[in-house]
Specification:
The structure holds two protein chains of two kinds. Chain A is mainly β. Chain A contains no helices and eleven strands. Chain A has strands at residues 4-6, 10-13, 19-25, 31-38, 42-51, 54-57, 64-70, 73-78, 87-94, 105-106, 110-114. In chain A, strands 2, 4, 5, 6, 9, 10 and 11 form a seven-stranded mixed β-sheet that branches. In chain A, a hairpin with a 2-residue loop joins strand 5 and strand 6. Chain B is 0% helix and 56% strand. Chain B has strands spanning 4-5, 11-14, 19-25, 33-38, 45-50, 54-58, 61-66, 71-76, 85-93, 96-99, 103-108. In chain B, strand 9 (85-93) and strand 10 form a beta hairpin. Chain B starts with a strand and ends with a strand. The model of chain B has no long low-confidence stretch (mean pLDDT 94). Classes of the chains: A mainly beta, B mainly beta. The interface between A and B is medium-sized, with 24 and 20 residues.
């Protein structure tokens, strides 16, 4: 079974703080993804990585950065948290080839509140 | 903009009926299509994927794909109250998936 874990289920931070969200997968997947999910807006892709140290911007990268130093670990960084970054953050991974291997497996999510 | 469109619902069906969820996509380059189920407060979990035109069945679930019409659907037979959730449709796009906003399904006893 694929397992994707995220460092925290719930997180409360203050405006201006630097926030790290960490994601780890145990299936040797090439691709990893960070999304945020807000009511009425669906899943929106922030960043993804298709190889170690390789990253690409998604649809809403502003205010975020990422780090992938090891294949199994993908971190999302909020350099200076703002209240509009209060959201559910979901990490996902996929094997990395076309067809069924596009399947993305999600972690449990981190509900971040920025006060 | 590569879009995946779904009716937001809620779609309400009685227990034991067939629930039909629909999705259209704009990117003709998409090769694979996925249905995820998401319970409130939880993360999405894969129900099934399809990449060939036609039907694919898995238990009570049937996915249907029509690439000419750019249309994907999910049928849930013998719907149960435990099927009440939001269903997300997704289409492949290079490395990533494009997700629809989801359809909320309510199965009433």
């Amino acid at each position: 079974d694929v397992k994707v874990t995220q460092s925290s289920r719930y997180l409360v931070k203050r405006t201006g703080e630097k926030v790290f969200l960490e994601c780890v997968q145990d299936m040797d997947h090439e691709n990893m993804f960070w999304y945020r999910q807000d009511p009425g807006l669906g899943l929106r892709l922030i960043y993804f990585s298709y190889d170690v140290k390789m990253k690409e911007k998604g649809d809403i990268p502003e205010g975020y950065s990422v780090s992938r130093e090891k294949k199994e670990r993908f971190s999302l960084i909020l350099e200076s948290a703002s209240t509009n970054q209060t959201s559910m953050y979901l990490c996902a991974s996929s094997f990395g080839q076309s067809g069924s291997s596009d399947t993305q497996y999600f972690g449990p999510g981190t509900r971040l509140t920025v006060l | 903009q590569k879009e995946v469109e779904q009716n937001s619902g809620p779609l309400s069906v009685p227990e034991g009926a067939i629930a039909s969820l629909n999705c259209t996509y704009s990117d003709r380059g998409s090769q694979s299509f996925f249905w995820y189920r998401q319970y409130s407060g939880k993360s999405p979990e894969l129900i099934m994927f399809i990449y060939s035109n036609g039907d694919k069945e898995d238990g009570r679930f049937t996915a249907q794909l029509n690439k000419a019409s750019q249309y994907v659907s999910l049928l849930i037979r013998d719907s149960q109250p435990s099927d009440s959730a939001t269903y997300l449709c997704a289409a492949s796009s290079r490395y990533a998936l494009n997700f629809g906003k989801g359809t909320s399904l309510l199965v009433t006893p």
